[in-house]
Design goal:
The chain contains six helices and no strands. It is mainly alpha-helical. The mean pLDDT is about 85.
Length: about 100
């Protein structure tokens, strides 16, 4: 195992959202598919817009809009109504019932 992979494992197994959120954005930018399940769990545990918006935006910009919508559908009831409104803007949706994935 190389040092980079060991460090990445240490970071991803931690619980500090201040570290995880930017790390997940990097993982999305380089399309580390093996990290996507952890991103999904993270999005279901944090409710702060400062973490949610950049990750959803990164998914959309990487062409993973449908995946982002599926995650959002799963966790939208957990998010603050303001966060829901802002994430819907990022995802480019008004009514989730009109989106079929």
């Amino acid at each position: 195992m190389c040092i980079r992979d060991r460090y990445m494992g240490d970071v991803l197994n931690g619980g500090n959202a201040e570290i995880l959120a930017p790390w997940y954005r990097i993982c999305i930018s380089i399309d580390r598919q093996d990290v996507y399940p952890k991103i999904e769990v993270f999005l279901g545990k944090v409710g702060r817009m400062k973490f949610l918006k950049p990750i959803y935006a990164a998914l959309v910009s990487k062409g993973k809009r449908d995946y982002a919508i599926s995650i959002f559908r799963q966790y939208q009831d957990f998010y603050n109504p303001m966060a829901v409104k802002e994430i819907k803007k990022i995802l480019g949706i008004q009514d989730l019932s009109l989106i079929h994935i």
